[in-house]
Inverse folding.
């Protein structure tokens, strides 16, 4: 034990001896920092030397010289070019590699040096963690980035943190695994398969507390497969980045991809051998193909090579046997171009992300029936495509079950993909046909029904085929043997995964026994839905009103060489009785007057105005005046003699000997001319609304018609919609009108069924066909 006597100088009480001098701590910190810089300098120097040695190796191979001569040549070339050996080495490697790194640094030597140095360090280690540190140090720090993470894509669209730099251990530990369904910046790049700049990260993300600035995420892709995501973080918000920066980032992602795709990578699962996938395909009971990506010269996916077809296909099932030589070892799009319609994109998505794809009743060009249940899964770098045809037996079983669920007999199915019609035996019996007769398509139902039921059938067909909703209606079936049956038909559309109409299923119910007596009829009405009863009563009222004030169809004018068909569809709501009219009459001058018009408004006043204008036009036409003059006179009638009503109209005078049509319009939509497979609207001649101006002037158009031409005139109730502009509706009408049709009546029926209108206004439609 020391005593004060042992310390005569009193040094035991000196505070300077109790703690280290602060200057010593500063010296220690400076030494540590100097050593850190020295280690970094030595590591960079080693990376630079590795790049120079790589360039020397290239020169040895290209010049067929010794290493010493290659070193001398590199020094000589650098001196002549006025650049450092490091910059020249980067140029030499880029020239021979012809890769994304070379493209990114083509016009910027310092960028090429940084990227090649990072690549040299990566090649020296082969470890993804070392690669990430090298990328951050050599390539990203000069760009202002402070942190980087590499995510590996794992099954089920989840992410695993494969490597990181610039983040703390604790932060990285919380982000080892990102399960499926969690939306992160890296997850977006994986799903959307594109480079994304995130200006303000509002999503959960690694390092959000310490690197809350901007960040970029880019998929790591090799051979069309997305192996993972490269995520780079900045401590500040990012301005718009030029394309040259994006090229550098893409090159760095490619560098990470080479390491992730290594068989020694710990995150990526082992790739199954092709023989394993082949054995799996041959063990399946359904047709199957093994596909492998076919890359273009840039390393991007161009097509899929068919590596193997299973025993089911080689046995002739699923595909025609003679088609097998075309697909074995061939390209998918060359063997089956129809795959480009949507199936190819599904396979590409499976190959890129590894997420399986399965769906039912998909149009498939590989299938014998055209429709199949499809499955696609990735196994390593191969895709296994399996399908099962929706065969006739399955469809018939489904029809039987469907008809039983609806309650009665007479089931049917119409395949919208192949056009095939399937009836069961009972439905043939209902129609008075025998199995083997040609089934009757749903769209031709009017041809076999009582004429008074045409409107109800038209609305039923429109609901099912156009609006694609379940519908039902009652009608009277007129059979070929002269027997009339009261029927009820129910139908519903079957839609594919993309919303496309695949088929229509339904059943016919014979309700004749309920109509033999008045008592049975009243019982049947009680059983029908209240809305159906109201609809039927309104339809009959509208039909009676139409027959009272509208002219009937004129049929054929044989002496004039014309076939004329007309349709009138009243408004669905009885209080919306409108002022639409049509007329077709032979005049004393041997010309034919064709007219269509629409009085503004609804109700009794509109109907009265319609009668006034239609009859006035008939009387005025007997004077022999032209269409423009008739429109001027009719405008005076609307303005002065009909309580200032307003209306639209189109009027035509057809001369049979010359086949010349003269026409004029008053604010009305122009007629449509169908000639062969083409169709177009007539030129829009000038003419204001009837009743709008006292001294309105009208322009006259002239058209030379030909044999087999068809002229269509209509009111806007056929096409108008509240949610679309009129031009869009006119284009839709023109497309429908150009479809082929057996008869003029069928063409008009198809227009009423498929035109995209709201059907809350009455509609007039007239068709004229020249023989």
């Amino acid at each position: 034990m020391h005593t004060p006597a042992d310390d005569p100088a009193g040094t035991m009480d000196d505070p300077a001896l109790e703690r280290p001098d602060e200057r010593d701590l500063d010296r220690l910190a400076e030494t540590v920092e100097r050593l850190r810089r020295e280690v970094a300098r030595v590591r960079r120097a080693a990376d630079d030397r590795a790049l120079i040695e790589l360039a020397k190796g290239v020169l040895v191979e290209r010049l067929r010289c010794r290493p010493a001569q290659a070193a001398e040549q590199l020094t000589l070339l650098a001196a002549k070019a006025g650049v450092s050996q490091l910059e020249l080495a980067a140029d030499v490697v880029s020239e021979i590699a012809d890769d994304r790194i070379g493209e990114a640094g083509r016009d910027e030597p310092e960028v090429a040096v940084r990227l090649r140095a990072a690549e040299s360090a990566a090649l020296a280690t082969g470890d993804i963690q070392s690669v990430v540190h090298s990328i951050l140090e050599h390539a990203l720090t000069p760009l202002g980035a402070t942190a980087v993470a590499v995510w590996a894509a794992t099954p089920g669209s989840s992410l695993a943190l494969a490597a990181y730099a610039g983040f703390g251990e604790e932060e990285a530990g919380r982000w080892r695994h990102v399960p499926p369904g969690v939306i992160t910046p890296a997850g977006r790049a994986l799903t959307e398969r594109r480079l994304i700049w995130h200006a303000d990260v509002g999503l959960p993300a690694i390092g959000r507390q310490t690197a809350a600035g901007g960040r970029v995420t880019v998929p790591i892709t090799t051979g069309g497969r997305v192996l993972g995501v490269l995520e780079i973080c900045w401590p500040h918000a990012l301005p718009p980045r030029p394309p040259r920066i994006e090229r550098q980032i893409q090159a760095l992602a490619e560098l990470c991809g080479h390491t992730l795709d290594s068989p020694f990578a710990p995150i990526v699962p082992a790739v199954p051998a092709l023989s394993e996938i082949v054995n799996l395909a041959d063990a399946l009971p359904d047709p199957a193909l093994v596909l492998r990506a076919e890359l273009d010269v840039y390393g991007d996916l161009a097509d899929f090579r068919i590596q193997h077809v299973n025993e089911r296909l080689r046995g002739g099932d699923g595909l025609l046997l003679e088609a097998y030589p075309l697909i074995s070892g061939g390209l998918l799009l060359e063997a089956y171009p129809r795959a480009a319609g949507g199936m190819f994109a599904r396979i590409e998505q499976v190959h890129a992300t590894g997420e399986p794809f399965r769906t039912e009743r998909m149009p498939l060009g590989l299938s014998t029936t055209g429709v199949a249940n499809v499955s696609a899964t990735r196994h390593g770098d191969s895709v296994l495509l399996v399908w099962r045809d929706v065969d006739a037996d399955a469809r018939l079983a489904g029809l039987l079950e469907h008809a039983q669920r609806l309650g009665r007999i007479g089931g049917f199915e119409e395949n919208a993909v192949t056009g095939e019609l399937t009836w069961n035996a009972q439905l043939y019996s209902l129609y008075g046909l025998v199995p083997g007769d040609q089934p009757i398509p749903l769209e031709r139902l009017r041809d076999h029904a009582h004429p008074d039921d045409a409107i109800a059938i038209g609305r039923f067909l429109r609901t099912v085929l156009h609006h694609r909703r379940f519908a039902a209606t009652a009608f009277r079936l007129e059979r070929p043997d002269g027997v009339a049956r009261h029927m009820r038909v129910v139908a519903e559309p079957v839609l594919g995964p993309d919303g496309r109409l695949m088929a229509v299923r339904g059943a016919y119910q014979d309700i004749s026994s309920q109509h033999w007596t008045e008592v049975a009829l009243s019982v049947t009405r009680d059983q029908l839905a209240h809305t159906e009863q109201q609809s039927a009563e309104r339809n009959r009222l509208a039909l009676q009103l139409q027959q009272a004030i509208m002219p009937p169809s004129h049929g054929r004018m044989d002496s004039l060489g014309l076939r004329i068909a007309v349709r009138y569809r009243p408004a669905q709501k009885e209080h919306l009785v409108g002022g639409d009219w049509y007329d077709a009459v032979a005049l004393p001058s041997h010309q034919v007057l064709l007219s269509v018009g629409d009085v503004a408004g609804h109700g009794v006043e509109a109907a009265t105005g319609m009668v006034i204008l239609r009859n006035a036009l008939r009387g005025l036409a007997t004077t022999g005046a032209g269409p423009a003059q008739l429109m001027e006179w009719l405008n005076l009638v609307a303005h002065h003699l009909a309580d200032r009503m307003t209306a639209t109209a189109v009027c035509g005078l057809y001369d049979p000997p010359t086949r010349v049509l003269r026409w004029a319009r008053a604010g009305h939509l122009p007629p449509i001319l169908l000639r062969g497979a083409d169709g177009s609207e007539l030129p829009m001649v000038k003419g204001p609304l009837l009743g709008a101006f006292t001294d309105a002037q009208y322009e006259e158009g002239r058209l030379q018609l030909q044999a087999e031409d068809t002229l269509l005139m209509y009111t806007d109730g056929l096409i108008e919609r509240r949610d679309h502009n009129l031009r869009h509706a006119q284009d839709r009408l023109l497309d429908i009108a150009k479809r082929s049709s057996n008869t003029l009546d069928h063409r008009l029926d198809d227009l009423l069924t498929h035109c995209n209108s709201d059907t809350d206004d009455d509609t007039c439609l007239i068709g004229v066909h020249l023989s």
The chain has a mean pLDDT of 77. The longest strand covers residues 484-495. The CA atoms of residues 92 and 696 lie 82 Å apart. The chain is about 40% helix and 25% strand.
